[in-house]
Design the sequence.
């Protein structure tokens, strides 16, 4: 009898282990944290310090500096699958993150922020550029696809929502209001430019969440110690701006309903649902009175960690790793002026996808239910359904095995709803109508 119990117990353990292994194989994980270091600025030759690109492996805590770019500043780095794109002063470089080899490079100017949309690498521009403040490159080889005309000024952050690409238009140091340029990706033409007004001055990073676009509006250089966060409803064009009584810098990323951002020279958080500050000092000011500041940051939503680059811009730079409540985990070396950072998320297949996730929602319009078909190629974590006021109607985690999801919407009031999916590539949204 004991042997039978042992056999059943062994079968149970093997079954659970197999299920766990399969779940782990479907799970997203962090391969590396990619940092681009601008190097010490040297006004005149001979130059001795240049931009570098490095990979930090969280599992081994090892750093590999795998390339030097012979410029003296970096603006951004984005990752799509196993490909990284770095904007560095007068160049855009494309890297294979499996081999750390350069795949392509082009000369460019006035670089600001980068964003991947389907097969396109979108580049926003700033001084010294005076026109064509957004350009579109082929994400496979960096060939020029389009120049977007008629945007009113210098640009920064980029995000896509409901098949429209939105770009933050801050006008540079002389900007007096924050604007959102809406670009049609079918023709790469400007379809609208929304003026969010003076409270949104300094508009910089853009994030899509819960049927809205949120912008982090940095405190203007030399301005009072206030910044703001704007909320834009991309389905109706309505917007509002929350002016905060704190100094605001870059936005770092979203985990659940919290936006983590530079606040009073440290890291704080902002609740996107209540539109209020959640915490002003998760990570305190590292020493801005001594010119030691946070240069860049990224939020690891898989492991609930924050990666922050800190330095004095002249003699040292360091990366710190914390929990999202501010507890210190570890640190790692970076170069000087490490002003760009991105997290290399992977699934076990390690494949690269340069196309949008093929989701389908049927029937649409719906009467009593909808069927959501998930992509075979993507890793899904959760979905939320919001009404047009931003209220959460439904929240559900998604296992790695679900490819079809049925949602009962018979009790939903008639109207338009937004479904937000958290995937291995971030957050994607779709909409449906309830009759």
Sequence:
């Amino acid at each position: 009898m004991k042997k039978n119990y042992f056999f059943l117990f062994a079968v149970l353990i093997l079954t659970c282990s197999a299920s766990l292994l399969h779940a782990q194989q479907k799970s997203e994980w962090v391969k590396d944290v990619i940092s681009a270091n601008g190097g010490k600025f040297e006004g005149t030759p001979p130059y001795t310090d240049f931009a570098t690109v490095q990979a930090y492996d969280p599992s081994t805590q090892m750093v590999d500096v795998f390339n030097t770019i012979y410029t003296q500043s970096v603006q951004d780095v984005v990752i799509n699958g196993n490909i990284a794109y770095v904007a560095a002063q007068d160049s855009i470089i494309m890297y294979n993150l499996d081999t750390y080899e350069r795949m392509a490079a082009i000369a460019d100017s006035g670089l600001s922020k980068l964003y991947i949309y389907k097969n396109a690498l979108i580049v926003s521009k700033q001084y010294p550029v005076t026109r064509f403040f957004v350009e579109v490159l082929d994400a496979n080889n960096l060939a020029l696809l389009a120049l977007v005309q008629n945007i009113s000024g210098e640009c920064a952050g980029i995000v896509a929502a409901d098949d429209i690409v939105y770009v933050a238009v801050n006008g540079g140091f002389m900007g007096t209001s924050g604007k959102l340029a809406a670009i049609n990706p079918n023709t790469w033409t400007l379809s609208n430019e929304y003026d969010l007004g003076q409270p949104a001055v300094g508009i910089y990073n853009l994030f899509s969440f819960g049927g809205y676009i949120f912008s982090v509006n940095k405190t203007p250089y030399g301005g009072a110690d206030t910044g703001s966060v704007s909320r834009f409803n991309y389905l109706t064009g309505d917007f509002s701006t929350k002016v905060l009584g704190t100094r605001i810098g870059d936005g770092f990323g979203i985990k659940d309903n919290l936006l983590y951002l530079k606040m009073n020279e440290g890291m704080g958080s902002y609740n996107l649902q209540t539109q209020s500050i959640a915490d002003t000092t998760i990570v305190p000011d590292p020493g801005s009175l001594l010119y030691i500041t946070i240069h860049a940051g990224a939020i690891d939503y898989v492991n609930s960690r924050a990666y922050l680059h800190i330095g004095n811009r002249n003699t040292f730079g360091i990366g710190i790793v914390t929990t999202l409540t501010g507890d210190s985990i570890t640190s790692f070396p970076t170069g000087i002026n490490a002003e760009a950072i991105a997290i290399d998320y992977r699934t076990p297949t390690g494949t690269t996808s340069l196309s949008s996730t093929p989701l389908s929602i049927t029937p649409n319009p719906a009467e009593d239910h909808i069927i959501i078909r998930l992509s075979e190629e993507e890793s899904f974590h959760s979905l939320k359904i919001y009404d047009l006021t931003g209220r959460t109607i439904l929240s559900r985690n998604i296992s790695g095995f679900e490819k079809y999801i049925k949602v009962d919407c018979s009790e939903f009031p008639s109207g338009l709803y937004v479904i937000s999916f958290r995937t291995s590539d971030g957050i994607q949204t779709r909409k449906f109508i309830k009759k």
